[in-house]
Amino acid sequence: MTCSEIRAELVAVMQAKNEKEAEIKEKEEELFADEHDGVAEKFLAKERAELAKERAELAKIKDQISSLGAQVERECYVRQPQDILQIQYQNPDHLVGFNASEIVWGGSDPTPVIGGTFPSVDAKQEWKQVLEPHDADYEGESLVGATGWALNPEFSDVDLPFYHPFGFDWEFTIALDQPQDDPTKYTFLLARGNQSQQAEGSGDAIEQATAMHVPLPIGPDNIPSVLGVEIDRGVIPNGFTELHPESERGGLAPGDRVAVFGRWIVDCGHEVEVADVKSYRTEIHPPLLMASARVTHDSLVNAQAKAVTRVLFASRAYLVSQRFTTDTDTIYDDTAGDDGPFVDHMVNEVIKVDSFRSLSVEAHPKIKSFPFDGKREAHFIVKPPPPPNPFINPGRLYVSYQFTVRSGCSVTVTPGALGAIEVVITLDQDGYTPPALPTRKGRSWPRDELDELRDGTGTQILEVEALAGVIEYLLTGPLGAIAVEVILEILGNGGIETDEYAHVEDNVDIYDASRAFFSVSVTDLPTTKGVTQDDSQPFPVYGWLEVGYEPLTHHV
């Protein structure tokens, strides 16, 4: 079957699943009512048998969906043309052959016993920026940009909850571009640890790249190397992140072209081993601005188009700090003080409990007042799908787009060279009005729930004894000797209290075309049409752009 046929069958089977689930729910309610009304057992037995039959049929339908989903992955997720999405950006000056371990440790060796991997006296926060200042939350002038192919996009099941008040991460891997004229243009972002397949999702990413013939950078140990990208799932539009196998309008898919601007960090919480050497991975975590592109036959606005390049654009609504506060009234205020990074904050919390100034340990991460700092500009270059016959005029080049921005942000669309469309997105803190924080509620994490998360991480991030040991070392005298007991008792009696915010990812429709500037010749650019300011939504910018050729026969 073709990709379109597989997706059509998947839509039909998913509809059958919904109908079957509705039937089962109705039969369950009937059985429940009859059981409580004292209906004769022989009739109840018949109802239970019918219900069991329906559930068995539902299980078969789910197996069909799983099988069709696998077929979609094989037939529909393909390597997209490299030229359809590129960026023009001068990355900051950077170290060549930097040692990620030294950034984690703060020196050439970890502190004995209680140093090394986060949480430790060396790594008091989970992520450190590769460029100085290592402990900064904002990217500042260290903002990096890169392009490549997306691999293995997925939602994480396990993260340190105290750093993820907007939900656990959505993440993917990039096979970075290696331009012939500048092969290290983006691969400088990779550390030795990026060769490891121990990191979650890396093995699957390598397999996908191999199946789609996506070229992979080769690291210093002659092993394929990929770059991870991670961001709280609740701060990016779900139209960008949610993959719908049954539709061409899903979010980022394996093989899509992707461009990312964001914070270049070393993951201090995941030590990996490469060629018998301990190391750490680098990531872009979190991205500030992302774009994904693929060739599609499902234009949002032009039914005449045979194929278009569609690009989705998304930016983060909020930035979670790695510093904590004891004053929840100033969580969203950069000018107010804080209680330090995670390890220092936990030491202070234990002292408060032991000195009877508190009955609980709390971990309230600050939220930066702005999702970005300064004035940031991202320059994207988008091209239409390659024409099927390069010797025949493919028709008139046209562009369609719709963007939504908050105040202080802008989008400019202009014609570029050789049939390209250039998109420049500007984010300016001086003119930006931050959105209000979404509703916040408390959430306690007792030891048993943290232990469940720990089992899925393969790291010591959630090892309570490891954290307690660090705290014990940092404290002196009798207080240090009872640190472990204090933490274990607190965790057993209710846990560590932190924050959870209402998600905003479903507040907007990234595919909305109701205000689009569509199907116009590139000669009509630039124009201010198609870009709407809306401060009632939380994202600095989001939207889409399509570019393609319209056959000349459509114009007289």
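The above is record 1. Record 2 follows with the same two-line structure.
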Amino acid sequence: MTTVSTVVMADTFTSASISYSALMPMLIVFVVALAEVLVAGFATRESRHALQVGLSLIGLLGALAALLLGARFHQGVTASVADAAGSRQLGAVVVDGPTIFLQAGVLVLALLAVLIMSERLGGIGADAFTPMGAANPGSVQERAAQRAGLTTSEAFPLMMLAVGGMMLFVAAGDLLTLFVGLEVLSLPLYILTGLARRRRLLSQEAALKYFLLGAFSSAFLLFGAALLYGYAGSVYLSEIASAISAGQPDREALLVPGVLLVLVGLLFKVGAVPFHSWTPDVYQGAPTPVTGFMAACTKLAAFGAMLRVVYVGAAGDRWNWSIVVVVIAALTMIVGAVMSVTQTDVKRLLAYSSIAHAGFILTGVLAFDVTGVSAVMFYLVTYGLTTIAAFGIVYLVRDVQSGSEATHLSQWAGLGRKHPVAAATFAFLMLAFAGIPLTSGFVAKLGAFGAAVGHGGASGAVLAVIGVLSSAITVFVYVRIIVMMYFTEPAENAVEVVSPSILAKVAIGFCAVLTLALGIAPKLLLDWAANASLFLS
């Protein structure tokens, strides 16, 4: 008789070291989001909108204050454990210069987006959102909700949850935290996309497309994370970089596919070609203030995460995978610029414009130098400011008969004669998108293309040339809108620019003024970006 003995090994649990001061900005945002959920459930119908807007503004301002006054003095890794040798700490969250700069950018842009999102245009709740998201478009339930004065106040906690996910996304020090941040920022955006008050079927279709394609991109990212774990034996970006430096000949086949699959998940969020098909549909179908928020903040967060993955985790093997991203960047600029020429809807035109800008920013990423990091971070902030203002104005241009947004280009004919302030502001923002001197867009493009030419080698120079040519194509698109507004006869009583509240006016005006100021005197923000361009590894 044989006796089989089983030896049970005792697992040791190592608690993580957490710096709550470093995490405080994110904690404030998440706590406020949960508080807003309670407000939506228990506050009276008449008070919900004001409470939600007030809590959002207080939470974002509080998080920004905690970031600038507290977290920046606690830089390092947190939620960390010691590595196998016990020689260094491996952190799930990394608080360093890029994290603080990008988180500050997310908070400022989200604050401005809330001001526009809260616009009621004389109604009870935010005008952009349906009174009952669960009701079928045009149904009896939806009409009853409108008559009862119901409001979709859940939009504000969903936005705050997305902001918290974005802040975690740019600070992720390992691939699992990166995935968690991606999901936390994405899931609320899927819901927000389907809550448009008007053109409900288009909004719900956009939400479904965004959700399905987003699920695929998340799966790609997770599969790539699994391959990189198989290669390095760790999900921490610093450990993956060490494994690349040491070399893993028996597992080399896992590295390049793993990096590219992770980048697919990130390239989807920035709308790079060929992962861009969701962008025009979602931009068109989502409530316009949500579109502005997504276009500005999601792009900033996704590129911030991409910078950390590329520069901290995978830079040591860039010669083997960067050529693929170079091709993607070139295609993104070309497709975005060319397709924007054919658009007749303002929101779809701005969607393809954002695709082209994603290619411009990728050009800076591929410089693989600190000048590229600082240029990209400056570009993300300036582009976000211009985008929020542009979509804010689109939100205010309305069809007189239906009251819905007048997004067809033909409806903007003669807008400069009837509403000179709104038209002049929008024309200036279009010039900033085009990169005309004395706008922030010119400084941003000059920095990204200059970094590519100076440090990106031959491929960087080629991308810069493609970027300049693509920018020239987009100039035609933006000038066409300006010509439409100023040199085309308007239709009789076709559209109007509704007068918004002081909050929306402040947001749009602030963005426009900064777009001009950062084109004339960008030194302060450029210096901050340059000083914050070093990653902790």
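The chain is about 70% helix and 5% strand.
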